[in-house]
Design brief:
Length: 470
């Protein structure tokens, strides 16, 4: 790759790093935000949920907008929105200001992230160059989340508002570099600019309602009425979206793209894998801080070992992909993740970090093997004019998986708390840790089924070739 190609890649990696570090730093700062602004538990939870709603609700629309209106244009415009509203969050004096800032920031990420991914997949030719770029990109995003936990802990000690101001500074640097380095391909052919408004409306409503229902699963005690109604409304809106797209002369989402078994399995695996990872990370954070009394910084440093994937993804993973292929690597990574979760199941009240470390390092290795190749498989073989859509589908899967994993482990943990003693709390954590393990195993089964189908197809073709022509 030439100097400009590396420059473009580094800018886009900076953007995905920004997205990861933004989420991680806020998670660490939540207790300090509650203490200063006097937020209720519901409002504090809403600060996280607002981002999930914006991100998950508009991701498909964001991915398609990149294909229709220009990837560079969408990336730069929404990076500016991300910068502005992250800064407004830092000036918040009321809970509603934080809720608004996080929702719009999530919407900005929903447009910016698939645009950035599609710039990579259309700038680098399919094969080793694109794989290397995608693995570098994936490792940077994961590293942003891992380092964000530590940086967030350090910044919160100064003032939690720096958790919002730091992304503003990073966004400004990335924006200036992007204006110079990223160019729209000359004479690029795009999908007609006429927007499928009914499709955009129905799919956004569907994603918002389903995301809201998934978030509500975290609080089963608040009543199932609104949760079930949200799920039902989301499914109905999704059905209406499918009906609209079938009749539309210029559909927002070409439904035929979902006939690709490889794409569907990659997205299903991504959803389950993200759910297992974020659910596990959330439980470990609660266990260390609430049950063991560790500080925010100590907890962040304990989880830092998982960030080894930021080193391995761009260095070791490309070589393994070239030798074993994406599917085998994804399956191996998911198996390692399941092993890491299983090793953590017998946790005790007096566990040393040495007892936790094997799970952390194995999970980091599993993440390095699975995350990047999932990104490759989900975008491989997709037409250039639909790369934004493919990226939108993938990041929708990741976001919904993360929300589902968090909701599931929270619900199980709350249900198993018992009498509130430390022993009962430990039992709740152990019960909830089964959720990430099950999700990782299911993800491995989904990926393995694809491998078996490929093997069966190869065997059938070989047998047909062996039959002499009559």
């Amino acid at each position: 790759m030439g100097g400009r190609a590396w420059g473009v890649l580094l800018v886009l990696c900076g953007a995905i790093f920004l997205e990861g570090i933004d989420v991680a730093m806020l998670n660490v700062a939540l207790p300090s935000i509650r203490a200063e602004l006097g937020l209720s538990t519901a409002t504090l939870s809403g600060v996280v949920s607002a981002y999930v709603l914006g991100y998950g609700g508009f991701m498909l629309l964001g991915g398609r907008a990149a294909d229709m209106y220009g990837r560079r244009r969408m990336f730069l415009a929404w990076l500016v929105v991300f910068l502005v509203f992250s800064g407004l969050g830092g000036f918040a004096t009321e809970g509603w200001m934080l809720l608004l800032a996080r929702f719009v920031t999530g919407v900005a990420a929903a447009f910016m992230t698939p645009a950035g991914l599609s710039i990579i997949t259309t700038s680098f030719e399919e094969g080793p160059k694109r794989n290397k770029a995608l693995l570098f990109y994936a490792g940077t995003g994961a590293g942003g989340f891992s380092l964000g936990l530590v940086i967030g802990g350090l910044l919160t000690r100064i003032d939690w508002r720096w958790v919002f101001f730091t992304p503003v500074i990073l966004s400004a640097v990335i924006l200036l570099a992007a204006l110079w380095l990223i160019k729209e391909p000359a004479g690029e052919e795009r999908v007609p600019r006429r927007l499928d408004f009914p499709g955009a409306l129905t799919v956004t409503v569907a994603m918002l309602l389903i995301a809201y229902a998934v978030v509500r699963l975290e609080h089963p005690g608040q009543g199932w009425g609104w949760t079930l109604a949200s799920f039902a409304g989301g499914v109905a809106a999704l059905a209406a979206f499918v009906a609209v797209e079938r009749r539309s002369p210029a559909p927002l989402v070409r439904l035929g793209i979902l006939k690709s078994g490889t794409l569907v399995r990659a997205n299903a695996g991504a959803l389950l894998f993200a759910g297992s990872f974020f659910g596990f990370q959330f439980l470990v954070t609660l266990y260390l801080q609430e049950l063991r009394g560790w500080s925010t910084l100590e907890t962040s440093l304990a989880l830092l070992a998982v960030g080894i994937d930021a080193i391995l993804a761009p260095t070791l993973t490309p070589r393994l992909v070239a030798r074993f292929g994406n599917t085998r690597l994804i399956f191996g990574g998911l198996v390692l993740a399941a092993v890491a979760y299983a090793l953590f199941l017998p946790l005790g009240l007096d566990w040393t970090y040495a007892a936790m470390f094997p799970s952390m390092i194995i999970l980091g290795l599993g993440f390095a093997l699975a995350y990047g190749p999932l990104t490759i498989v989900a975008t491989d073989g997709i037409a250039e004019e639909e790369q934004g859509l493919a990226g939108g589908l993938l990041y929708t899967a990741f976001q919904f998986g993360a929300a589902l994993g968090l909701s599931a482990v929270t619900a199980v943990n709350v249900a198993a708390l018992g009498d509130g003693s430390r022993e009962a709390a430990l039992g709740g954590f152990r019960a909830a840790l089964v959720v990430p393990l099950v999700m990782a195993v299911l993800a491995a089964i989904v990926i393995a089924s694809g491998r078996q189908r490929v093997s069966a197809k190869e065997a059938r073709l070989a047998s047909e070739e062996a039959i002499p022509a009559s």
